Amino acid sequence: MDEWGLRSCIKGLCFDTTALNTGTKSGVCIRLETEIGHELLNLACRHHISEIMLEKVFSIHDVSKSPNMELFGHFKDFWPRIDQASFSTAMEDENMATVIAPWKDGVIDFAVKQLAKFQPRDDYCELLELSYYICALCNRNIATNRQNNNN
Prior knowledge:
By secondary structure, the chain is mainly alpha-helical.
């Protein structure tokens, strides 16, 4: 840091949320702030933040660390009782369609452009693909609804 004159340029840290990094007494983030001599903006990885939030939500219902979480077991058991034929998309609801319509095409355009670029993580690609398919499905539903209304 000092050899390259970077000490005063360092403003933040981007890190995963392991105890090694975030420990309040001897975590790497604390040690770096001490070494650098000023507080730094902590930018915890959003992927890891989501994991922590989900872990807290699921811990309310299931204290197990097992991949067979109780909450998912309940959902699996209840699934046959859901009338899947009555499923409808937001675009089939007039109020929701009005809310979604202005930004739907922008989401499709953004997802297509980003998918053409290198994505460093598979979950980024999955989110972009899901966003694209959901919005494209909305387009299909609009066309289907228009055909039904014209007949």
